[in-house]
Amino acid sequence: xxxxxxxxxxxxxxxxxxxxxxxxxxxxxxxSWLRSLPPRASGAELQIHVLDVGPIxxxxxxxISPAGKSVLIDAGDAGKGKVVLDALKRYKVEHLDYxxxxxxxxxxxxxxxxxxxxxxxxxxxxxxxxxxxxxxESGLSGKRGKASxxxxxxxxxxxxxxxxxxxxxxxxxxxxxKQSGAQxxxxxxxxxxxxxxxxxxxxxxxxxxxxxxxxxxxxxxDTNANSIVMRLDYGDFSxxxxxxxEAQTEARLLSKDVELKAKVLKxxxxxxxxxxxxxxxxxxKLEAAVISDGSWNRYxxxxxxxxxxxKAADAKVYRTxxxxxxxxxxxxxxxGDKLYEVKTAKEATSDVWTGREALKDDSSRSGxxxxxxxxxxPKEKPPKQKKAGKK
Length: 391
What we know:
Layout: H1 6-36, E1 46-50, E2 61-64, E3 70-73, H2 81-90, E4 95-101, H3 106-109, H4 112-116, E5 120-126, H5 168-180, E6 183-186, E7 192-196, E8 199-205, H6 222-225, E9 229-234, E10 237-241, H7 247-254, E11 264-266, H8 278-284, E12 288-291, H9 304-312, E13 316-319, H10 320-323, E14 326-335, E15 338-344
Parallel strand pairs: 3-4, 4-5, 5-6, 10-11, 11-12, 12-13
Antiparallel strand pairs: 1-2, 1-14, 2-3, 7-8, 8-9, 9-10, 14-15
């Protein structure tokens, strides 16, 4: 008697359908999931150099990827371009793949024109904010090209006749970008930049609508709050680069579905009291904090309250005003018991956990426009001695 194979054929057909559906599902969802995974660390060295552009206030960070790609984030204040160019020469950087201007304040891009005029740059990224345009009405984002330039008050005298108006440094920056021939793009949250060797940069902020002065009544500065914030990942190593982001920026990031946990935090706004909130520090779960600030700054950077928060988080703190240039290196993998190494140009001669006293307030509510202190802060006057009374 011949055995029936009808049931077996049906089972095979069902199996084929299941396998086919699985293959389609993997093609549709699995491949995108695989592509979303960060690349493996190559094992070559990633370098992060937080440059010392003091003693005035400023930021400039040089990143050299495991594949040799280079990124410069900000370029310090006017007159500090030479310091940055010397660092590029020291680290044998002859071409910048990316220059990132976190926001239009002179202590971040005052030296950018000198750098852009001296070295080839592939792509310039900024936040699209034009400081020379009038402040937007509440709820508007203040994008470039929407309004003419206002009359600006005259700032403190600057070196070499640069930045003759409050926004002069920005005009020089834009002119240098155009002359450089670099590709110019606006930072887009969520966009990733492959630096090669497994290192990835991701833009986290700013997000639309941009902050306005009306939203800074609790403190902080709207131009700072719209800083570019980026995340750097390489294997098991991660770092948040906060620009001059304010507490309002941090609150917006905390409300979004973004990865904020990181091994190292480049502290926002030079350690200002208007940033590095307690909730943000708790979410980041950092191990080390780097503060780029100048010993001549008059804004109380870093603030004692911020240092206290970092200490409570059991983080190790490094400061350019006390330790000079700060270098972080990593292979993205544990090397012995270390994932990364931090070296400073010099030993601190005073306590890194002691903040500075503020002589000025750099918040929008105080009428702050842009930094303009180029010399050392005034010396404290000795107390007057009382004249001895006549007998």
